[in-house]
Amino acid sequence: MRDQWATSPGDDLHLDLRGPRLREGLMEALRDAIRTGRLTPGAKLPSSRTLGADLGIARNTVAQAYAELVAEGWLTARQGAATRVATRATTAPATTAPMPVLRHRHVHDLRSGLPDVSAFPRAEWTKATRRALAAAPDDAFGFPNARGRPELLTELAGYLARTRGVRAQPDQIVVCSGVTHGLLLLAEVLKRRGNPEIAVEAYGLRAHRDRLADAGIRTPAVPVDAEGAVVDQLPGAGAVLLTPSHQFPTGVALHPDRRVTVVDWARRTGGLVLEDDYDGEFRYDRSPVGALQGLDPEHVGYLGTASKALTPGLRLGWLVLPPRIAHAVAEVKGEFDLHASTLDQLTMAAFISSGAYDRHIRAMRLRYRRRRDQLVAALAEHSPSARVTGLSAGLHVLVELPSGNESAVVQGSAWQDLAVHGLAAFRHPAAEADRDALVIGYGTPSASAWSGALTALCRVLP
């Protein structure tokens, strides 16, 4: 048996030549490639000279094999043209394995957690990519540093200080592929230090709890009320994960007294406060509340992402960490070799430095504010029993419903081909149900789909 690679322009062809007779072995190898679909109808084969040189056999042997396969109907050949697989050649039967079930795409989508991805600033991003490539040093195209590219770390440190009040030096920042990735890195460090527990808010993303549980981290629940997380009796966890600027999904801000309380807890116990600032750029009724991290950079870690401001498809996030833990997190990240794309990091740095990021956020802030106002007005007109609560901020609202209506409305929405989440989808298993509500994301629809989604929502509300 002789395994060989035959190359033709644009193709690599693996042929398994069997038996001592080269011509018969080549013919059977080509038949097998056609039967199994590796050579599809119409595919061009190498010239007899090229194939013979690649396989180390005589050109005439290849030419004779081609001629016989043409006669059998496997190949076609014309004077002055390439030899090709015949369009009626026998190929492998279609597989009988079941196709994977694709998630149904609803006509209207008001699920939370996504921005309007149709508004991604393609032209500005392309310009930033060109600038980044032109300015990139040669070492940028080698193996990446676990912390991230220094160009992005520097830009992030300045941007976060200016817009969110975050206090950090570039060497306190670790670039990751999103908040969930950052949490897993932190979880690994906490486990190695003997603190396999991160307390989480009673309402929050199930995906975060599930991934932490998969990583061997316990996630006790912290109650949430009208003033945010109840932090005066935190469990003896190594860390607590909060959304203080805009609690997800209830939409309230952590009361100033509680901000001080949780920082005092961290100082007293040596614990770590993890601040998920998932949509901190989007506050509509006044200037955004500054990051909790600014109160005590030694005990509060800041988690940010480009997912809400740009697109989750970019897979760029960042951790701003106390110096006592930043190096350990970077080391863990290096062990797992999960690095964000260097080109995306360089482009993001150029995007921020040019002011394009600020301009995009201002434009999206105006768009989302209009949508929120339209949503609140439509609900007041068509469903006065539904009450919008929480801050005028972010990309979602909490709509409280009359008791006993949540599951019926979610089911009715599915019948109307409207995707929407009930509050129960975000409740910690250990937390008691205290209200019926919908979590409505108004960022997800494109501009052309927004009015239709709003109309569909009004149809299903009581």
Reading side by side through the largest sheet, how are the strands ordered?
6-14-13-12-11-7-8
Class per helix and strand makeup:
alpha/beta
Major pleated sheet: 7 strands, mixed
Quick one: overall form?
A: globular
Q: How helical, in percent, are the residues?
A: 25-40%
- H/I helix tally: 13
Task: Provide mean pLDDT, rounded.
Answer: 89
Count of DSSP strands = 19
Oligomerization category of the chains in this entry: single chain
Distance between the termini: 73 Å
Taken as a percent bin, the fraction of beta residues is 15-25%
Low-confidence stretches: none
Query: What is the rounded Rg?
Result: 29 Å
Properties at a glance:
alpha/beta; four-stranded antiparallel sheet; seven-stranded mixed sheet; 462 residues; single chain; 13 helices
Description:
- The protein has 462 residues and is of the alpha/beta class.
- Helices cover 38% and strands 15% of the residues.
- The strands form six sheets. It has a seven-stranded mixed sheet with strand order 6-14-13-12-11-7-8, sandwiched between helices. Strands 15-16-19-18 form a four-stranded antiparallel sheet, covered by helices on one side.
- The model has no long low-confidence stretch (mean pLDDT 89).
In short:
It contains 13 helices and 19 strands. It has helices spanning 22-35, 48-55, 59-72, 122-135, 150-164, 179-192, 206-214, 256-269, 323-336, 342-353, 356-382, 406-415, 450-460, and strands spanning 2-8, 11-17, 75-76, 84-85, 108-109, 173-176, 198-201, 221-222, 224-225, 228-229, 239-242, 272-276, 300-305, 317-320, 387-389, 396-400, 418-419, 421-422, 437-441.
